[in-house]
């Protein structure tokens, strides 16, 4: 759980330089995850759609950052209103948080031991990547303008309030007291449920599931997974909001669970398909990162291994659910983020260890069923809210400006039809030195 000092109103003081440096670094690491996600998603689509896929992640950085500093931070971390949202006017435009720099200044507004502006920036990166995650479910067919509209509305109506529920003093944090250290509910279940809703409304890609939609650039996918793993240490360890032992503890559990999940995914592939794949390794990495996100402060190393193995194996199987139920989740956002987020959140109720920083006791450590119930309630509530609201937003956009590209645009490719660009100039690549000299 986020440090409880965050709930207090910012006070003027002198920041701790070590904590501030770590949170600034963590914020930059989490921002790097969004370009990492862009490569991860971009490599998995066909070559005619790679720029559009990358643009959907990068554009989230623009849309969400603007909304966050205007009112998003205030909705998420402003004074609680009925346990549902923060006061949207309290920090509108970050007013009162940019004070303390005059000649008479003896400090700046603080959140705990760090400048409030640093905490604003750190949390902005969470909001950005949560929105970007959704885009993978609708690759190859969603109009770019409609994506921007959906991203802004969903962030406003879903992510900002849910962040308040989980971290800003809202009902999940204060009444249910579910543990979500870095975003199992607020980030992964939230985005996974929205991805499912949006994929259902947008509809299936032309030719799916009979046409194979193979990744066009697996090195992109592996690069993206590596950047995500690297940035995720800022995501999880940075959520300690201090350069302390909790940050070190969560760093280790994040490493362990992710490694275990990758190996578990590869083992499932070997048994099921006969060959372990690079795509499986990359996907296993992300599944492990997702599952350990809510639980990294509440489990020991053994618990992290258990969560990683279960997440890697279950998510490897869960990505096939779309064929059984008939929803076209292009890049397996549901199978990895929704399923992985639920697993990581609920398993806290079983393997939370009292020696971990959260100090909670799961069922396997004699804690009974209470914690398991609280975790399940938090997971189900966020899943249901995000799915229903995302479904409504998608239908409204579909009935007004439209969601999906035309059949012709989808056939040509989203890069050319939406952006008038192509990622690869095949004509130039196909030329020869002799023809180049002749043309010159």
From TrEMBL:
Q: Which Gene3D superfamilies match?
A: Ammonium transporter AmtB like domains
Read off the lineage from the record. Answer: Bacteria, Bacillati, Actinomycetota, Actinomycetes, Mycobacteriales
Q: MF terms per GO, please?
A: ammonium channel activity
What residues form the membrane-spanning segments?
Answer: 20-41, 53-73, 114-135, 147-167, 187-206, 218-235, 247-267, 279-295, 301-321, 333-356, 376-397
Keywords assigned by UniProt, alphabetized? Ammonia transport, Cell membrane, Membrane, Transmembrane, Transmembrane helix, Transport
Looking at the record, the residues that make up the Ammonium transporter AmtB-like domain are 21-424
Q: How does it sit in the membrane?
A: Multi-pass membrane protein
Q: Which InterPro entries does the record associate with it?
A: Ammonium/urea_transptr (IPR029020), Ammonium_transpt (IPR001905), Ammonium_transpt_CS (IPR018047), NH4_transpt_AmtB-like_dom (IPR024041)
Q: What is the originating organism of this protein?
A: Nocardia puris
- Family, per entry: Belongs to the ammonia transporter channel (TC 1.A.11.2) family.
Tell me the function of this protein: Involved in the uptake of ammonium/ammonia (NH(4)(+)/NH(3)).
Alphabetized PROSITE patterns for the sequence: AMMONIUM_TRANSP
Q: Tell me where it resides.
A: Cell membrane
Q: What is this protein called?
A: Ammonium transporter
Under the subunit heading, UniProt states: Homotrimer.
| One Gene Ontology cellular component | plasma membrane
């Amino acid at each position: 759980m986020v440090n409880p000092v965050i709930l207090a109103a910012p006070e003027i003081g002198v920041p701790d330089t070590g904590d501030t440096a770590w949170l600034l670094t963590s914020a930059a690491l989490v921002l790097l995850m969004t370009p990492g996600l862009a490569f991860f998603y971009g490599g998995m689509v066909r070559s005619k759609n790679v720029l559009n896929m990358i643009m959907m992640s990068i554009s989230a950085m623009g849309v969400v950052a603007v909304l966050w500093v205007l009112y998003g931070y205030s909705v998420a971390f402003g004074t609680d209103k009925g346990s549902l949202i923060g006061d949207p006017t309290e920090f509108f435009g970050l007013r009162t948080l940019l004070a303390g720099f005059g000649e008479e200044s003896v400090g700046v507004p603080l959140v705990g031991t760090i400048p409030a502006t640093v905490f604003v920036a750190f949390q902005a990166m969470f909001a950005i990547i949560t929105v970007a995650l959704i885009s993978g479910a609708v690759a190859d067919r969603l109009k770019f303008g409609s994506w921007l509209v959906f991203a802004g509305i969903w962030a406003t109506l879903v992510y900002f309030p849910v962040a308040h529920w989980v971290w800003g003093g809202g009902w999940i944090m204060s009444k249910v007291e579910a543990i979500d250290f870095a975003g199992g509910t607020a980030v992964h279940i939230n985005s996974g449920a929205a991805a499912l809703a949006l994929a259902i409304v947008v509809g299936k890609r032309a030719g799916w599931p009979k046409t194979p939609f193979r990744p066009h650039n697996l090195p992109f996918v592996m690069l993206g997974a590596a950047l995500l793993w690297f940035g995720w240490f800022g995501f999880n360890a940075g959520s300690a909001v201090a350069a302390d032992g909790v940050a070190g503890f969560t760093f280790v559990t994040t490493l362990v669970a992710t490694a275990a999940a990758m190996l578990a995914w590869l083992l499932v592939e070997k048994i099921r398909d006969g060959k372990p794949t690079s795509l499986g390794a990359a996907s296993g990495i992300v599944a492990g990162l997702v599952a350990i996100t809510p639980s990294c402060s509440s489990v020991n190393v053994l618990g992290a291994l258990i969560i990683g193995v279960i997440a890697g194996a279950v998510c490897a199987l869960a990505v096939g659910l779309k064929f059984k139920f008939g929803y076209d989740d292009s890049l397996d956002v549901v199978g990895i983020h929704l399923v992985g987020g639920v697993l990581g959140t609920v398993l806290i109720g079983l393997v939370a260890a009292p020696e971990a920083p959260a100090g909670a006791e799961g069922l396997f450590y004699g804690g009974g069923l209470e914690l398991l119930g609280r975790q399940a309630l938090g997971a189900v509530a966020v899943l249901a809210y995000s799915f229903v609201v995302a479904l409504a937003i998608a239908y409204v956009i579909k009935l007004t400006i439209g969601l999906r590209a035309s059949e012709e645009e989808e056939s040509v490719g989203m890069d050319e039809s939406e952006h008038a660009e192509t990622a690869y100039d095949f004509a130039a690549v196909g030329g020869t030195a002799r023809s180049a000299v002749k043309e010159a």
